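Annex B. Sample input.
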Amino acid sequence: MLVFGCTGGGWCATHALGSAASAMASSPFLRIAPTLHLRRCCRKFWCEEPKEGTTNGWTRRRSTSAAQRSPDVVEVEYADLNLKNFYGAAPNLGHIRIRQHVNPLSSSFATPVEIPVWKEVFRDPSLPLMVDIGSGSGRFLIWLAKNCPERRNYLGLEIRQKLVERSQFWVEELGLANIHFMFANATVSFEPLVSTYPGPLMLVSILCPDPHFKKRHHKRRVVQASLVDSISKRLSIGGQVFVQSDVLELAFDMRNQFDACLDVFEHVDTIDNNFLCDTQGWVLHNPMGIRTEREIHAELEGARIYRRIYQKQKHCI
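Annex B, continued. Sample output.
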């Protein structure tokens, strides 16, 4: 069973989670060293420099100081990766601007990616696998690959090619052999990729995906019935799914998709009552010990992160 524990300096949160620390220490989802300060978590910016927006509460209007602080806080919290040292080595991959929204239903994203030769991608392709769907800038997954003591592999799937190129460049510069990024539409590529991976799939994370607010665009959202079905079939027994968003409506949508498969999954608080949830069933504390960029950005704006964690209890029929 895959367990997560994170070590390393420079990333400690300013608060302790008290009883949550002991809960996480015994969790199959995350094992944390007793002396480690937890760090709260989420995901990525929709662009490298977040812009002020007014759409439906997703990109909330923020103060100028908060807008200026976001990139600085990201740099500080990921400082132990020393990624700035590599900006000069590839100037066009340093600070890049990308499209905020991508239409995964476009014909250009309809073809599944070519399956890699796994033994060429990972040093040991038999290790348990974590797949991060919508890996964004890649910092979150790179930090886990570099700092978590448990032996496992990490696969990041991202639909914006420039981010994938830069993430993979960073991986090569850091000399990490347990992580790989792919330019892929997870909706069509997740199933063929994980079905060929030699080791067990133990964790799938979908952290603050694009909310696609307009109702006619909901079909573009990454968490669709087809993807949930693939995850339920391919995840190993005891494997887990971690979804979260700072947009409540999207969080409910993802929750409903996985709640529809409770014959296969159980929510983590029914398995381990040490996981603290509010009265609505949202997990109160991030279990990864690290914030993603989207969470940093959202929390600076005063947003709440809505989290659900599911564990596979039986084989999908």
